[in-house]
Design goal:
alpha+beta, Phosphatase 2c, domain 1, six-stranded antiparallel beta sheet, five-stranded antiparallel beta sheet, 10 helices
């Protein structure tokens, strides 16, 4: 096992006027050393396309998660999917990216636009082997992984963007590759790259997409541990042990909460310096403590981080709100969403007397729910989460 991991992000837009997306993405992890990503595109749009693409991705990902050979999975789905008698094309196409032990990527492609592969921030023409499975032409590739490799899988709604509007023949694959080459050196996450790509497609469609468009980005990166301390321990005698465990962990250290940061300052024997820089009037200011990378207020700040996390997993519309701001919630969001791969929560279960005021909308259960919900959101982002309660 190496210290690489796969950062996965995706975004879809629906055919104009449709409530459901005809594309579907399924991600499964059969074990700690394997990840299977399936992007499926159902024929047409709307309900029928959504059902077909969902079935296709679910069947493939479930079979692969059970350890069946890739060829058998592809053979089963290829034999299962009918071909449209009018158009002569399959009812559902698919792209599979199988990350093995973070060392090798196996790519299987059937009738979707060819996966774009960036290495050293440049479009790389990778080898493909043509196979005939169940009478269908399938392309298979095996690629040894390196840090910062980027794979971009798409439905045909992306290269079709702008047909008859911005371009005569759509947004060609090589043009999409050039677009991605300009973004890759910046260091954006997979989610941000997929969002920027699909937003550009939406723009080319003049915000009235003529087809469902989906982009899934897989970025290979090094693991980055992160530690977050939230709340003092229920037993004061556990403070020393809690702080010792927290500060002994490798990676950056985030402290949330006034009382918590005071305990940390006492443990480190360093002064806690408050700042009065109200970057955002809704979020309390941060503080400075030598030995900690970030010190913020507690519940209000973490609640805003949770709001950003929910949006990040949905349409990512608030990205610019937290990407460039310097308030505590924005700084935590950047560290957790963009930098961290493995996150350790150290959560104190002490009841804050200030929160027992009936006029305040904060109580102990809300604080615990914040941790549970935020950790669930981070897991959905592909982060490895560990929570320790004190």
């Amino acid at each position: 096992m190496n210290d690489l991991c796969a950062d996965i992000g995706f975004k879809s837009i629906n055919h104009y006027g449709e409530q459901l997306c005809g594309d579907h993405i399924d991600i499964v992890e059969p074990d700690d050393n394997s990840t299977v990503i399936v992007l499926s595109d159902g024929l047409g749009s709307g309900v029928k396309a959504s059902i077909l693409s969902t079935l296709t991705s679910k069947i493939i990902s479930t079979m692969m998660a059970e350890g069946l050979p890739l060829e058998e999975c592809v053979s089963t789905i290829a034999a299962t999917l009918p071909v449209c008698s009018v158009r002569g094309v399959a009812y559902s196409t698919f792209t599979i990216i199988h990350i093995k032990d973070n060392r090798e990527a196996e790519i299987i492609q059937y009738d979707n636009p060819q996966v774009i592969f960036l290495r050293n921030n440049k479009n790389f023409d990778y080898p493909k082997t043509e196979m005939n499975i169940g009478g269908k032409k399938i392309f298979k590739s095996l690629i040894k992984l390196e840090e910062n490799d980027i794979f971009v899988a798409m439905s045909d709604g992306c290269p079709h963007a702008g047909i008859g509007i911005s371009y005569n023949f759509g947004w060609k694959r090589e043009d999409i590759a050039n677009f991605l080459e300009t973004l890759a050196p910046v260091g954006y996450t997979a989610k941000t790259l997929s969002t920027m790509l699909v937003d550009e497609c939406d723009k080319l469609y003049n915000y009235m997409p003529g087809d469902d468009a989906t982009a899934c980005v897989v970025k290979i990166r090094k693991r980055e541990p992160m530690n977050i301390l939230f709340g003092p321990p229920s037993n004061r005698d556990d403070a020393e042990r809690m702080m010792s465990l927290f500060f002994s962990k490798i990676g950056k250290h985030i402290i949330c909460g006034g009382t918590t940061s005071s305990i940390a300052a006492k443990y480190l024997r360093k002064p806690l310096k408050a700042t009065l820089n109200f970057e955002n009037s809704d979020i309390p200011p941060t503080a400075e403590l030598e030995g900690a990378d970030l010190v913020t207020e507690g519940v209000i700040t973490v609640n805003r981080v949770l709001e950003y996390a929910r949006d990040y997993l949905d349409e990512n519309k608030r990205y610019e709100e937290w990407c460039f701001s310097r308030d505590g919630a924005s700084l935590i969001s950047r560290l957790l969403f963009e930098e961290a791969t493995d996150i350790n929560f150290f959560v104190g279960k002490a009841i804050n007397p200030a929160h027992q005021n009936p006029d305040l909308p904060i109580n102990f259960s809300i604080k615990m729910n914040l941790v549970d919900e935020l950790s669930d959101c981070l897991k959905k982002m592909g982060k490895k989460i560990k929570i320790s309660y004190f």
